[in-house]
């Protein structure tokens, strides 16, 4: 193998190593996420998804109040003492797998599960919010 071929192979590796070192020193993790993993990176995105899934304003507001108190719209919120997980603090979080295999990272999956839970247990998000106000949990 010629020296010029080795240099062409080594140069990109050196560049990638330099980028990784700069990223690490800046506290940025360089990881690859699976292409199929749908994630929600902000509270605003999760709220927009919930608005689409819950068109009734009163029901959306009730749902939003619960989520604000439970997780502050953080898809990966975890309760350190109980292990409850996600926007709606499912306990255990793996219950949300019934709504989709991407339950750990997908706001739409967590919202769907939360709505189903609120509707089946309380009749509606508004009724769940009423219960939450009286008990500080739902």
UniProtKB/TrEMBL annotation:
Key word DNA-binding present in the record? no
Its signal peptide is 1-37
Keyword Signal among record annotations: yes
Q: Which UniProt keywords are listed?
A: Signal
Which residue ranges does the record assign to the Transglycosylase SLT domain? 59-129
Q: Which SUPFAM superfamilies match?
A: Lysozyme-like
Pfam families noted in UniProt: SLT
Know the name of this protein? Transglycosylase SLT domain-containing protein
Please report the organism this UniProt entry assigns to the protein: Streptomyces griseoruber
